[in-house]
User: Fold 2-oxoglutarate-dependent ethylene/succinate-forming enzyme from Roseomonas indoligenes.
Amino acid sequence: MPLDSDRTDSIPVIDLGPCFAGEPGALEATAADLHRICETVGFLFIRNHGVPVDLMRETFAAAAAFHALPLEEKMALKLDDRMQGYLPYKSSVARANGLNAVRKPNENEAFFVNPERDPAHPVNRWPDSLPSFREVTLRYYAAVEALALRMLPIYARALDLPADYFGPLCDRSLSSLRLTHYPPVEYGADEFGIAPHTDSSFITLLAQNPVPGLQIRTQAGEWIDAPVLPDTFVVNTGDVLNRWTNGRFLSTPHRAFNKEPKPRYAIPFFFHPNPETLIEALPGCTDAANPPKFPPQTVGDYMAAFRGANYDHFRQKKGEAAPAS
Ligand SMILES: O=C(O)CCC(=O)C(=O)O
Ligand SMILES: [Fe+2]
Assistant:
C-alpha cells in the first residue's frame, strides 16, 4: 500500500482497525509499514485504536480540573521518589539526552499517575477536592496501557521477532501517565513549553491534542508542526526501543509550545518494559558492520539515570544545585 510514510517530512498515519480485527495478512502488512516509519520518521498517527474518544476528552478535562486547583493543594502532592505527583511549573529541564544547550526550565507543570497493580498498596496520591479524578485517570491509564500491549505484536513483527516477543517483558511495566499544563506565555529566546528532547519510553502514546503545539525534528534537521487529526493518537519511539534496536528505530527529538491565547493540556502515556527487563541489542539488530552501540542496562537502571538528569528533586537529593528559574 503506498503510504505517506515514504516521505520523511510529514508524520504518517496507520489504521490499526484491520490488524486489531484480526484480518488475514493485516498484522504483517501493518508491521511492514511500522518498520519503515520507525526507521525513517520515528513518529506516526494511529487511527481505529479502540480507546473511547469520550474517555480521551474526560481525561483532558481531568487535567484541566487538576491544574485549576489552588497551588497549595497541588504542592501538597509534590513529586515523590516514585515519580508520582505534582511537578511544579518550571522545575524540569530537558538535559538527559544532550540534544542541545537548553538550560532554561520548561514552561509547564504536570501531574504523574503511576500504575496501581495492588489495591492493598496504593502508590498514587490524589487531590481531595476532585472526587472523580482518580477514577477517570486510572480508567484512562488502563485503556492506553491495553492499547500499548495490543500494539506490541506489531512492533515485534516489524523487527522480524515472534509476535509474542515483547509481551512477557512488558506485562508489569512501570509506565506513567503525565497530565501537563502549558499556560499561554510569551516565549523568550531558548524558552519552550517543553524543550527539545527524546522520550525515555519504549513508545509514547499521546492523545491527539485539540490545541496544537507539538513539533518534531525530521532527519533532515527541520522542525515541522504535528497536524491536528481528531481522535487519533500520536505514537513515537522512545529511547528504550531505540537502544533495544541498536539505533535502528529512531527516537525522534520533539518539543512543544503553547502559542494559543488559552491553556494547553497534554496527556502523554509513557509505556515502558518491566523494570528488570535487560535492554541489549535485539536479535537481528547487530551484525559485523553494526556492533552493539549501547551497553546492556536494565530498564530500571536506565530510568534512574534519566530522571536524575531531568527533574530537580532527584538532583537536589544528590546535593546538586537546581537550575535557575
Ligand atoms: O505537549 C506535547 O504535545 C508533547 C509533550 C511531550 O513531548 C512530553 O511530555 O514528553
Ligand atoms: Fe516527549
